[in-house]
Amino acid sequence: MKPMLPFEKYFGKLELVYAFYGAMPTGVSVSETGRIFICFPKWGDDVEFTVAEIVQGKLQPYPSLETNLINPGNLTMSFISVQSVVADGRGTLWVLDTAAPNFSEPIKGGAKLVAVDLKTNTIRKVYTFTEDVVLPTTYLNDVRFDFCVGKAGYAYITDSSSKGPGAIIVVDLENGDAYRRLNGARSTSPDPNMLPKVEGEILMNRNKDGSTFPFRLASDGIAISPNGKVLFYCPLTSRYLFSISTEALRNRNISDMDLLYNVEYRGEKGASDGMITDARGNIYAGDYENNSIRKIMPNGTMVTIAHDPRILWPDTFSIGPDQYLYVIVNQLHRQARFHYGKDLRQKPYSLLRMKIDELPAPTFS
């Protein structure tokens, strides 16, 4: 009789919220009233609509199908390829449109941050970007908000470029004034020494013709402290966590060189895609190399709260008013571009949640 050998321990109580049998999702956000929004960037799948709401167990284009159809004559009012959706807890869904289908150069005039009124389900305001902010290499990835400063608040956006400099893009929501900070800095750049490993294999770009090159993505995950004073961020291909004072980021009198001295290294947390903070200042971060979710306390203590074989690339996080942590799991690493043109993803992709007994960090005092 063969002995029963020990095997890896898995833990964390995860619940399936929604199973996706169509296009691959990346973003999720739960509003203050419990509405759930999803986005589907155009990375090669057949994307019917790039932003959706889950209504009575079904996906519905949001705020309308018309808005999700590219209108070449009015790019500012139509969604092109949305990477992130964020409900701000005060009646607005913010939509971050890369305007870069298949990681192309952003379509001129198409990259934008859109405010959608959740009461009327209509677009309230659109913020576009100049060519010195959204570069030909830019890939707008994720966004966080602070409405405690300025007349209308500020947004902070990660540029997760694979071909150009990473950065944090700061947006004054009063007038739309936007500018790049930490452009090409070490803290917003991929770790050149990192070899990502997922499901026991090295993750790298592997083309149909047999050629290969390293997988490198700049600043991606982003989270903000409950008081809005500290921004946390990480490159996608890095295991490190960094932070910076939002006041320093906004202060354009601080030169780019001097701004580097305001960056704090917060230690190794594992390789993360998405991050989020709760009302107590705890940070939740995925670890895509280890099928895990980590919780980082304000004092720096880190614990793994979930380790599960179903966590096949934890992407975006959101905390709902129900005190659940929601996470999109989308098998990003199994895409064809990493496997010589062979798509290894297995449907469905999933939206999972786990009870954390914490509320989301507020964006306003």
UniProtKB/TrEMBL annotation:
Entry-linked Pfam families: MRJP
SUPFAM superfamilies on file: Calcium-dependent phosphotriesterase
Primary location recorded for the protein, binned into one broad class: secreted
GO cellular component: extracellular region
Cellular compartment(s): Secreted
InterPro entries according to UniProt: 6-blade_b-propeller_TolB-like, MRJP/yellow-related
Keywords for this protein: Secreted
PANTHER family in UniProt: PROTEIN YELLOW-LIKE PROTEIN, PROTEIN YELLOW-RELATED
Full protein name: Gluconolaconase
Provenance organism: Peribacillus saganii
